[in-house]
Amino acid sequence: MPQAMTRFRDKALPYVQTWRGRLREHRKRNPYHWVTVWALIFIGLYAGHRLEETPLPLRLRYWVYNLIERPPQKDSFSDDLVVVMIGDEEYWKRDGASQPLARRSPLNRYYLAELIDNMTTAHPRLLALDVDLRAQTPTRFAFDDPIYHDENQCLAESMRAAQETIGCRVVIPRAITRNYDDTYVHEHDAFDVYEPSYVSRGYIFGHFDVRRIPLPFSDSTGMQIDSFAFAILRELRYTALDDALSNARGDFLYSDFHHPKFFRIVPAGAIIRKDREALQQLQGKIVMVGGNWHNQAFDRGSLIDMHASPAGEIPGVLIHANWVQAMIRKQTFGALQPAIEKLVDIGLSLLAALIFVVVVPNRRLLAIVGLNIAAVIAVLLMWRFKGIYFDFVLPMMLLGGHVAFEQISEWKEDATEHQRVCLHMPETQP
Predict the structure, then answer these.
(1) Which of the chain's ends, N or C, has fewer CB atoms near its CB within 10 Å?
(2) Which residue has the higher pLDDT, 93 or 141?
């Protein structure tokens, strides 16, 4: 072992001496180089943090994620979840329901009640409604027009019947809003009075990065509020819920993201018509109901509730389905603490700055380009597989630009010096 260490030292010593020499030479030529390096690192980190608040970087990462991921194989579906989708056929046309949706807002509760009654006959494990159930004025002075009372009561009775007949719980959204002091308060809806008995609640908004699973938090009164996905798992008493929480780091919990084709999507109209094949697909599954119709008319305008994701623009209910699927299959992981991420960013940026200096001058520009490309690839792969995103790419690009400018300036100085020396050399006589 001592001999091996000696051989390694003898081989490494010439390189170390060369690097020291280049560092001394660079310090003589550029005495303020490292001051500039530190300034560029902090400028780059700040600019990267501000850039994170814009959609462009996230859409780039989604594009890379989608490039790496492959669509699921044919006939490869989730064994846990089925999505029942209310589309244009159901929202804009009469699809056989006794009380059609008829392009109305709020959604016709009679329709939702009939949908629940028919789904209950298939014996699902749990029903989750990703629909807006807020009161017309959801403030503390809540008001819901009395004309909706009967249909609200009908929906409440259908949710009660699902629990009492087959033991199938129903999860509905909890509407919350943020106060000026960054606390959250509950907004009212017509189903508040039914909450303690047979329905569960979960808030439905999420982070701008849909790979982040929203975690439970406390509102302004100190009451814990689950997210929609967490409420579903809590009702089913999955041990995966505890595993997911143990993986979380602060407010961050990342998940793998499944392609929309991974989930079976059953049209709500097929359930209303009591299609046997459609109902069979719900048996023993978590069934999530969501909407995906056009906002102006049949096949006119934009689709509602669409969100950017690694799989492109998808309905919100599929984002919730992804979160539930990831937690059930234990495909979640926590991110690094912000302080650790910043230390890594600074350390890698300084390492890059050191490499830029010690590299042979005539290869320095090539090293700058190569390191920047490698950094972009490494950052995107780390974000894809571990949910970790480092901000050192922008500082490294700034450092690369600074070193390239210095190198070009050095070449220019050398050329000027060479020209000056040539002009003052005495001419040789023939």
Answers:
(1) C
(2) 93
13 in a structural domain = no
Report if residue 12 sits inside a domain: no
> What are the residues whose beta carbons fall under 8 Å from the beta carbon of 142, sequence distance 6 or more?
135, 188, 189, 192
Q: Do 132 and 179 share a structural domain?
A: yes
Please give the Cα distance from 190 to 409 (Å, whole number).
71
Per-residue model confidence (pLDDT) at position 217 = 79
How many C-beta atoms surround the C-beta of residue 167 within 10 A?
A: 10
**Looking at the structure, do residues 387 and 323 belong to the same domain, yes or no?**
no
pLDDT > 90 in the chain, percent = 21
Q: What is the mean pLDDT of residues 346-372?
A: 68
For residue 19, name the pLDDT band (cuts at 50, 70, 90): low
Residue 306 falls inside a structural domain = yes
Same domain for 321 and 302: yes
pLDDT at 308: 84
Examine residue 430 and state whether it is found in any structural domain, yes or no: no
User: Which band of pLDDT confidence, cut at 50, 70 and 90, is reported for residue 392?
Assistant: low
pLDDT at residue 121 tops 60: yes
Question: In this structure, are 38 and 178 located in the same domain?
Answer: no
Split into its structural domains, the chain has a count of 2
Q: pTM of the entire structure?
A: 0.74
